Amino acid sequence: MNLIESIQEKTGIGERFLFCLPRLGTSTILGIESWALFTLYTTGYGLDSFRAAIALAIGYLTIAASQFLLGWISDRKYTKLGRRKPYILLFAPFLGISIVFLLLPAQFIKDLRNKDILFFW
Does the reported pTM lie above 0.85? Predict the structure, then answer.
């Protein structure tokens, strides 16, 4: 019996479920958000599905890079507010602004018929 089989025998189904639960919630929310943005940009704004998919893929890669980079930075820097809290306070307004920009491009782009501008938005 190898190490993996030994761990699997010791771990019950309840422990496995509790282990996957936090990741399940964030993945579900991110999946719903991606589907909503894809639908909004393809049916609402007329962007072709290939460009919308590429934009979402770039977004996922950006999330992966930023999680690695900010996790590395916050693990190395300790402030009086803690390790994570200063970065949450600093970047939360940018997250809110980016959501507004993603959902309401018509407020900021004058010509939505130009799909190149909409893609780079």
Answer: no
